């Protein structure tokens, strides 16, 4: 029994030892494996390269709409073709192959690609004309000396990017141009490259089908700027375009947001440029994580916020009518007036007198903004420079439309009063010089001098005022400096010794005489003269003209702020009531002068105040008219002019009628509707009388040609 117990004990002891050894071995193996795995993982982590890049998500640009909310420029959802650095081959030759394949596809579908390199597309290569700054930037970016040729630039790109001889010369130029554009646009992990814009859905589908063979090529759905009505204020609206240079890019960073990238499109002119910070909005941010060369995550960390929508003061339909009025008047002159055969250019400005909001601003010749974007070169080379906005930047002598300013200075300073008379004998002497008037007006006061536009009255008044006083009042009316329109406007210059010195001509004492009637070397814009008319209408209160009525959110559902009237000057502070009473009476008298029926300003149901002018110009004479209506409770002020033309005042009635049609509840609108009803009633009466007369005539005829039962006609008694 003891032996059996001893054997069992030894067996258990042996088994325990064996199990202990096995457990130790297993534990050792486990520890070894664990150490190997952990160390491998730690080693892998130590060798892992992880980089996080921030990429911009473009914000939707704000729209520009007219006073009724009708879009002038807006956005559409479209497709842009991009290349992303994260997926684009790092090997130059592979990258060239991708570029070549996508360009071939674009060629087949008729799309252009972005290539702004200032080098011709064909051999022998040369630098493009009028692009000196771009050429200098090209040489600098390629680290070439200033004497490098266009051929040197292409060769450098071919060498740098290993564009081999498997491509033709034309293909090498295409690849080199795109490679340079990528360099220019700072193509990087943080900045995608836009190769082509606004691709149609059919082409998008083809690109997506071939994406596996074109690493880095992608299609993004984005808001694309579109022109909805390119005929409305094309100069003032302006356009957007790519950032052209490092200098422009740095200026944007200084003046606007700090998140611009070189691939952005920005405002290049007009309101698109002036209101860039407001229209642009705030870009979003997308973070891309790249681990050991592979994109491992993409996360949107900041959503983009769309730019504000700008609502203008301008009525699109009224603007279109004003453009038609100007065009048709010039056509009329070319057909009927031999000396006006070249009357091709002019401008009309219409302001709301309550705050100088621009209701319409026509210029001729003009262009369609959407066509400008497609063919800038041909439009810019057209005759008479359609890119010049004659309403805001055209500079002209104002001629007799200037006389209300001289009258203001005389009445306000007390140099004259309403009863003061000067003698006009058609010839007037100043020192040893002779000056002339168009009429022999005898003793005449300021009111009548404005009505008949007597030169001699204002010659006399100007010399009594002196140059300094006259200049003071010109400046108070807003002449000689920009008025501050949001899209920009020219200031012109005043007739004074400083101007003559700048122009390199001598100032003579007699220049003051000519300056008093808007001649000499004074230059103004139609916008400035419309502002003069509005200031007279407001008894000397001059408001800053403006195009913007209000700012809205991107969806145009909530107003964020409205433009308040800005009073910038009060003219005639000494005796405004009397000053403008006499000036207004004179201008009403000018409007009552006889004109052909279609243009007559009498019988409208309200008085109009106007002043005409025929200033001398390089074209012979221009034709100006300024004014406001209704004269006793003004709603609108205007200026119309034609270069080398006549009868600008013939456009006034049409301008007021167009305004009345678009604003039927205004005084002017109600008056024209009342006049139209009276005209219709008169025509109806005339038709009724004609009908009665016709009926009576038919009755008489029946009596005269009645037949008897035999069929014989009875002749009337004679």
Helix-strand layout with pairing:
Layout: H1 2-47, E1 50-57, E2 64-65, E3 71-83, H2 92-109, H3 132-141, H4 150-160, H5 169-184, E4 193-199, H6 201-209, E5 217-227, H7 234-237, E6 240-242, H8 246-255, E7 265-267, H9 270-274, H10 276-280, E8 284-291, E9 294-302, E10 309-312, H11 316-336, E11 346-352, E12 357-364, H12 369-374, H13 376-380, H14 403-413, E13 422-424, E14 427-430, E15 433-436, E16 442-444, H15 446-452, H16 455-465, H17 467-476, H18 497-503, H19 511-515, H20 526-537, E17 541-543, E18 548-552, E19 559-562, E20 567-570, H21 576-591, E21 609-613, E22 616-617, E23 620-621, E24 623-629, E25 636-642, H22 652-662, H23 667-704
Parallel strand pairs: 2-10
Antiparallel strand pairs: 1-8, 2-3, 3-4, 3-5, 6-7, 8-9, 10-18, 11-12, 11-25, 13-16, 14-15, 17-20, 18-19, 21-24, 22-23, 24-25
Helix pairs in contact: 2-5, 11-22, 14-16, 14-17, 14-21, 15-21, 22-23
Quantity of strands, as a count = 25
Strand content: 15-25%
CATH superfamily caption of the largest domain: DD-peptidase/beta-lactamase superfamily
- Helicity range of the residues? 40-55%
Task: Write the CATH architecture name of the largest domain.
Answer: 3-Layer(aba) Sandwich
Q: From the alpha-carbon coordinates, what is the Rg to the nearest angstrom?
A: 39 Å
Report the CATH C-level class of the largest domain.
Alpha Beta
Low-pLDDT residue intervals, each spanning 5 or more residues = 699-718
Q: What does the overall shape look like?
A: elongated
Strand count, sense and closure of the main sheet?
7 strands, mixed
Q: Can you tell me the number of structural domains?
A: 2
Give the distance, in angstroms, between the N- and C-terminal Cα atoms. 180 Å
Would you tell me the overall average pLDDT?
88
Reported by name, the CATH topology of the largest domain is: Beta-lactamase
Structural class: alpha+beta
Count of DSSP-assigned helices: 23
């Amino acid at each position: 029994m003891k032996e059996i117990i001893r054997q069992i004990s030894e067996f258990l002891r042996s088994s325990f030892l064996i199990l202990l050894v096995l457990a130790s071995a297993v534990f050792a193996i486990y520890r070894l494996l664990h150490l190997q795995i952990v160390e491998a993982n730690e080693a892998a982590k130590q060798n892992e390269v992880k980089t996080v890049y921030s990429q911009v998500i473009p914000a939707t640009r704000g729209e520009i709409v007219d006073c009724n909310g009708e879009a002038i420029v807006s956005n559409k959802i479209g497709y842009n073709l991009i290349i992303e650095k994260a997926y684009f081959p790092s090997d130059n030759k592979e990258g060239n192959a991708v570029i070549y394949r996508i360009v071939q596809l674009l060629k087949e579908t008729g799309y252009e690609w972005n290539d702004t390199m200032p080098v011709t597309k064909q051999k022998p290569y040369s630098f493009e004309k009028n692009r000196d700054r771009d050429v200098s930037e090209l040489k600098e970016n390629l680290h070439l000396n200033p004497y490098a040729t266009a051929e040197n630039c292409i060769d450098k790109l071919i060498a740098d990017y290993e564009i081999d001889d498997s491509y033709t010369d034309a293909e090498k130029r295409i690849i080199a141009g795109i490679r340079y554009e990528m360099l220019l646009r700072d193509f990087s992990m943080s900045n995608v490259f836009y190769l082509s814009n606004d691709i149609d859905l059919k082409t998008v589908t083809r690109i997506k089908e071939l994406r596996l063979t074109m690493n880095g090529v992608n299609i993004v759905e984005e808001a694309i700027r579109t022109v909805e009505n390119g005929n409305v204020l094309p100069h003032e609206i302006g356009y957007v375009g790519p950032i052209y240079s490092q200098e422009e890019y740095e200026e944007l960073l200084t003046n606007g947001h700090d998140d611009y990238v070189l691939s952005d499109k920005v405002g290049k002119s007009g309101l698109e440029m002036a209101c860039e910070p407001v229209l642009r909005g705030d870009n979003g941010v997308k973070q891309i994580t790249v681990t050991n060369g592979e994109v491992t995550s993409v996360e949107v960390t900041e959503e983009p916020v769309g730019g504000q929508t700008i609502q203008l003061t301008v009525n699109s339909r009224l603007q279109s009518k004003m453009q038609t009025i100007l065009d048709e008047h010039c056509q009329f002159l070319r057909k009927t007036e031999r000396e006006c055969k070249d009357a091709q250019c002019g401008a009309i400005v219409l302001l709301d007198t309550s705050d100088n909001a621009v209701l319409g601003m026509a210029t001729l010749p003009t262009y369609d903004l959407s066509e400008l974007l497609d063919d800038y070169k041909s439009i810019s080379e057209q005759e008479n420079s359609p890119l010049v906005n004659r309403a805001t930047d055209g500079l002209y002598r104002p001629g007799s439309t200037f006389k209300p300013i001289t009258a203001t200075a005389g009445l306000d300073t007390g140099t004259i009063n309403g009863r003061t008379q000067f003698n006009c004998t058609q010839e007037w002497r100043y020192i040893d010089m002779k000056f002339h008037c168009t009429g022999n007006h005898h003793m005449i006061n300021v009111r009548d001098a404005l009505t008949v536009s007597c030169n001699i009255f204002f010659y006399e008044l100007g010399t009594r005022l002196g140059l300094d006083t006259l200049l003071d009042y010109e400046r108070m009316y807003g002449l000689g400096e920009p008025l501050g329109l949001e899209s920009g406007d020219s200031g012109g210059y005043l007739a004074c010794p400083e101007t003559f010195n700048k122009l390199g001509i001598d100032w003579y004492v007699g220049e003051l005489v000519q300056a008093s009637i808007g001649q000499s070397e004074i230059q103004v814009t139609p916008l400035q003269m419309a502002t003069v008319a509005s200031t007279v209408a407001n008894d000397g209160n001059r408001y800053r003209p403006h195009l913007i009525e209000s700012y809205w959110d991107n969806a145009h559902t909530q107003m964020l702020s409205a433009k308040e009237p800005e009073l910038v000057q009060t003219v005639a502070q000494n005796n405004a009531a009397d000053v403008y009473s006499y000036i207004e009476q004179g201008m009403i008298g000018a409007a009552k002068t006889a004109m052909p029926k279609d243009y007559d300003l009498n019988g409208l149901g309200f008085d109009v105040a106007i002043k005409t002018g025929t200033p001398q110009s390089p074209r012979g004479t221009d034709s100006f008219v300024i004014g406001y209506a209704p004269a006793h409770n003004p709603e609108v002020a205007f200026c119309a002019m034609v270069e080398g033309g006549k009868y600008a005042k013939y456009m006034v009635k049409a301008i007021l009628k167009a305004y009345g049609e678009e604003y039927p509840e205004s005084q002017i609108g109600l008056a024209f509707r009342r006049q139209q009803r009276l005209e219709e009633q008169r025509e109806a009466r005339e038709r009724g009388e004609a009908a009665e007369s016709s009926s009576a005539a038919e009755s008489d005829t029946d009596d005269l040609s009645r037949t008897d039962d035999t069929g014989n006609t009875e002749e009337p008694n004679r």
